[in-house]
Write a sequence for this structure.
């Protein structure tokens, strides 16, 4: 039986996954050249363009499937901290880092939440608990 907190967690996970997936997809669809030049202009190493784009695209898909929720959410949190520090903080809260901060907080919530409705992670743990005594 589903309860309201589990439904709320599911809604946040889907929102987070879709948001990051779309941001990653956008980076790849237009070619990474624009993002690379943006990163370069801020003094950020070019290889991080690819790291961020892959985390966003693949991580978004994984979060939607409920695979590696805590790991992916940790990576999303790291990306948001980097984004806030390197590009958004100077612009202030409004029109600056408010979305990044919201995504950071949701990512942190995903890390600390215990149960994830309709996630493959919970199904894997449930199957393993039948074979391996988990404490």
């Amino acid at each position: 039986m589903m309860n309201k907190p589990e439904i709320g967690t599911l809604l946040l996970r889907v929102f987070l996954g879709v948001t990051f997936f779309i941001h990653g997809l956008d980076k790849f669809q237009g070619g990474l050249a624009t993002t690379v030049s943006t990163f370069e202009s801020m003094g950020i190493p070019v290889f991080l363009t690819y790291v961020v784009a892959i985390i966003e695209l693949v991580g978004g898909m994984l979060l939607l499937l409920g695979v590696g929720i805590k790991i992916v959410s940790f990576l999303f949190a790291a990306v948001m901290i980097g984004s806030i520090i390197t590009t958004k903080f100077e612009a202030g809260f409004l029109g600056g880092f408010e979305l990044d901060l919201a995504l950071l907080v949701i990512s942190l919530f995903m890390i600390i939440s215990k149960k994830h409705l309709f996630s493959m992670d919970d199904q894997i743990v449930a199957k393993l608990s039948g074979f391996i005594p988990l404490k």
Observations:
- Residues 4-129 form one domain.
